[in-house]
């Protein structure tokens, strides 16, 4: 049996080594690419990223990736955005001015409220482990990248901004930051986004990566 | 506050894990990769590698250790020691590190903080401060692994580092490091309540009360533990269980 092929977009942002290592550990054949023509050929596509939204979009644009990614997203093949990669799936961000995103999922990227629901300020960037929670009672993770993950499983986050999908049906998992609801994972068909880092979330993260590969 | 992070701190000299007292009198403890793997399996939240010699000559050891660890340890790894430029930073990141801890070079040239955070993101830029008490609620920042005075006020330096783009502060008490006499909670509180970014308390953990105190009165966002882990007196599971018993919110590993 062939190993599942994963194409990881290298657009000059962030450290792709841990993403590669984790996917390889889970049995994938990983191609890191700086070439937009590889996107069309991909069996599955991963868009990682850390840092500022505008830098990320500028990197994708400079690399010629914007249209190939949008086109790929309409094929129904699996896509995973990680951290900034998830945020860029939305329509726009308010991080240091308003910036257009990939527009794969309706909604915007907004700053994490600087204080909890009790009014006490909390530290930003938010760095640490938090529990994945189903956004509604109807949410079912079966058949998604969170299949078999018990609600309440902790994964690793580091961010100052967060996606706010406008349609509840696209929310796959949420987190509770001192009483504030933060979108932890999104889904629209085979398009997935994780605000957390599955490649840095221990065994739970590896399970999520294996689930993503199982879709292939 | 969010979930308190439990971090294992591994000081490295050449190919070895070492441990000293007040950053001196170093003892070799063995292969750092073996310790890192063990802590990962026990459910540690993050790992810090600090190369305490950090000469250019020794650099290949550190890079090899990081490269080996990141093959089977899938949690955030911070690496510090001898990072003097964006190029050095890049080399360490290429080996698999997620975050860089910078002290000495940023004291000599504070712009390095801005350069690293602009290039790799502020989440990558951990300002490492080694603070030595000089008087009533006064601390001086030291460099070269606690050996050199700088004349810089540690609290002011923390605030300045923040303005320059640091995403996190690793705060080591030179007076308490390796002593197991408890954290310098006053130092941790002074920094943690004055900066908007997370602060990792390091140096002095001897028992559970020390841990609880630095969280409650020091307002630490994360706690770095070395000696008591390395010598096997407290395991990661012990510490997590104790935290839960004391009502401290930590990562849920049982779900």
Tell me, rounded to a whole number, the average pLDDT of chain B: 93
Distance between the termini of chain B: 21 Å
Secondary structural class of chain B: alpha/beta
Silhouette of chain A: globular
CATH architecture of chain B: Alpha-Beta Barrel
- Helical region count of chain B? 10
Overview of this protein structure:
- The complex is a heterodimer of chains A (about 220) and B (about 260).
- Chain A is an alpha/beta fold.
- Chain A has one domain: Class I glutamine amidotransferase (GATase) domain (Rossmann fold).
- Helices cover about 25% and strands about 30% of the residues of chain A.
- Chain A is built from six helices and 13 strands.
- A seven-stranded mixed beta sheet of chain A has the order 2-1-3-4-13-12-11.
- In chain A, a hairpin with a 2-residue loop joins β12 and β13 (about 190-195).
- Chain A is globular, with a radius of gyration of 16 Å.
- The mean pLDDT of chain A is about 95.
- Chain B has about 260 residues and is of the alpha/beta class.
- Chain B has a single domain, classed as TIM Barrel.
- Chain B contains ten helices and twelve strands.
- An eight-stranded parallel beta barrel of chain B has the order 1-4-5-6-7-10-11-12, surrounded by eight helices.
- In chain B, α1 (about 30-40) packs parallel to α2.
- The chains are: A alpha/beta (about 220), B alpha/beta (about 260).
- Chains A and B meet through α1, β8, β9 and α6 of A and α2 of B.
Quick description:
By secondary structure, chain A is of the alpha/beta class.
């Amino acid at each position: 049996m062939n190993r599942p092929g994963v194409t990881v977009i290298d657009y000059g942002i962030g450290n792709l080594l841990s993403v590669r290592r984790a996917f390889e550990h889970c049995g994938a054949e990983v191609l890191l690419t700086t070439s937009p023509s590889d996107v069309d050929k991909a069996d599955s596509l991963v868009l990682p990223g850390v840092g500022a939204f505008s830098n990320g979009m500028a990197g994708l644009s400079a690399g010629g990736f914007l249209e190939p990614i949008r086109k790929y997203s309409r094929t129904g093949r699996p896509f995973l955005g990680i951290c900034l990669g998830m945020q860029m799936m939305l329509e726009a961000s308010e991080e240091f001015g308003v910036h257009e995103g990939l527009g794969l999922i309706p909604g915007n990227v907004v700053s994490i409220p600087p204080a909890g629901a009790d009014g006490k300020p909390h530290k930003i960037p938010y760095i640490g482990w938090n529990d994945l929670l189903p956004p509604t009672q109807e949410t079912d993770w079966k058949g998604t990248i969170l299949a078999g993950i018990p609600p309440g499983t902790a994964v690793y986050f580091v961010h100052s901004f967060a996606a706010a999908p406008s349609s509840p049906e696209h929310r796959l998992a949420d987190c509770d930051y001192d009483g504030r609801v933060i979108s932890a994972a999104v889904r629209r068909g085979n398009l997935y986004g994780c605000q957390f880092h599955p490649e840095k979330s221990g065994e739970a993260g590896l399970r999520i990566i294996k689930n993503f590969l199982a879709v292939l | 506050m969010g979930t308190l992070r439990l971090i294992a701190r591994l000081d490295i000299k050449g190919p070895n894990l070492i441990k000293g007292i007040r950053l001196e009198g170093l003892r070799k403890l063995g292969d750092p990769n073996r310790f890192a793997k063990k802590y990962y399996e026990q459910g540690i939240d993050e790992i810090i590698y600090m190369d305490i010699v950090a000469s250019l000559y020794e650099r290949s050891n550190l890079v090899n250790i990081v490269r080996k660890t990141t093959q089977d340890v899938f949690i955030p790894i911070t690496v510090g020691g001898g990072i003097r430029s964006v190029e050095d930073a890049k080399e360490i990141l290429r080996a698999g590190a997620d975050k860089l801890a910078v002290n000495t070079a940023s004291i000599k040239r504070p712009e390095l903080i801005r350069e690293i955070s602009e290039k790799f993101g502020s989440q990558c830029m951990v300002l490492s401060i080694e603070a030595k008490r000089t008087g009533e609620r006064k601390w001086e920042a030291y460099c070269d692994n606690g050996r050199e005075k700088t004349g810089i006020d540690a609290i002011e330096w923390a605030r300045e580092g923040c303005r320059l783009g640091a995403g996190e502060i690793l705060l080591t008490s030179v007076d308490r490091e390796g002593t197991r006499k408890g954290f310098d909670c006053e130092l941790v509180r002074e920094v943690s309540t004055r900066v908007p970014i997370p602060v990792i308390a390091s140096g002095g953990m001897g028992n559970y009360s020390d841990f609880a105190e630095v969280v409650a009165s020091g307002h630490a966002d994360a706690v770095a533990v070395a000696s008591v882990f390395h010598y096997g007196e407290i395991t990661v599971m012990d510490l997590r269980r104790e935290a839960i018993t004391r009502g401290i919110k930590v990562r849920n590993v049982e779900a």
